[in-house]
Amino acid sequence: MNPVLLFSLCSLIWGSTWFAITFQLGVSSLWSVFYRFLLASVLLASYCCLRTGFPRFSMAQHLRLFFQGACLCGISYWLVYESERYISSGLTAVLSTSVLYFNVIIRRLWLAKPVEAKVVTGGVLGSFGVLLVMLPELTVQSVFDASGKGIVQALIASLVLSIGCVACERNEEDNLPMLPSITLNMLYGSLTVALIALAQGIKPEFSVSSEYICSLIYLAVFGSVGALSSYIVLIRKIGADRAAFIDVVFPVVALCLSSLVEGYEWSLTALSGVAFIAVGNTIALKPKKVELPARVSENQG
Q1: Where are the coiled-coil regions (predicted)?
Q2: Structural domain for 53, as ranges
């Protein structure tokens, strides 16, 4: 699939998951994340088995996929859920843009990838844009009253997510089959948060309310199977640094949906933020120019 379509799909779906997650808060965040990714992995595994069968992986490959899944589909999601118990979703959205910079640094240290000036420039503009968009939520009192624990959790969530993204890019070098790898990422992510819950003495819990079940299905099918799978494919196509720009787009999508269903009113400041995000994305995601070899004149020599 075209990278532009993948980017758009992730942004649109993840922009809508903000609403679905609010119906999950009555149950422990660890178990909610566990159910979400376990269901997603079962659905993807069923599709893989019906389509081509499920391949065998070596122990070393399983270990790499476990590490990637624990970061990408488990710990990072749990920490984001937990951070919103202490800080506003607006502050969480602003802090999540740190993924952009973590990705650049970790790619450089781990994969020896060059740091591109346009990606950093685009990241700074995009992050400033998110700050402007979320400014109404970030009153002086809300920021200074914010729990340091929530801020730390949000930043660690971004760091862990970034490690998972770069691990995904590293695993691409081994040419692992796409969908089976994603299936195992989700399975291992769900198992990781379940182990964390049991280690903390949190017993399994579930809600049989229609809101919880419907939101869980939506998050598993669209938020995980659809969007997260597309995100992993996008990382393999354009790299973790550029794929992370989704984190500056989907909060805007969420506010667009909020304006339709919750009456959110756009301010000039928020619209200016959208402009900064658009410019930043244009700079960072602009494809590299491919220099064609100079044509040699037929009359030469």
Answers
A1: none
A2: 3-283
Whole-angstrom distance, CA of residue 204 vs CA of residue 32: 10
* Cα–Cα nearest to 189, from 228, 231, 236: 228
CB-based contacts of 58, cutoff 8 Å, min separation 6:
none
| CA–CA gap between residue 274 and residue 137 (Å, rounded) | 16
What distance in Å separates the CA atoms of residue 236 and residue 243, rounded to the nearest whole number?
Answer: 9
Q: Which two tokens stand for residue 205?
A: 């819990």
Per-residue pLDDT reduced to its tens digit, 66-93: 999 999 999 999 998 888 777 766 667 7
CB 76 within 8 A of CB 161: yes
Mind listing the pLDDT tens digit for each residue in 221-270?
A: 999 999 988 998 898 888 888 888 888 888 788 778 777 766 677 888 88
State the amino acid at position 101 in one-letter form: Y
DSSP H or E segment with residue 250 = helix 246-261
The count of structural domains within the chain is 1
Whether 290 maps to a domain, the answer reads no
> Residue length, the chain?
301
Residue 244: inside a domain, yes or no? yes
Q: Using an 8 Å Cβ cutoff, are 230 and 1 in contact?
A: yes
pLDDT band at 297 (very low <50, low <70, confident <90, very high): very low
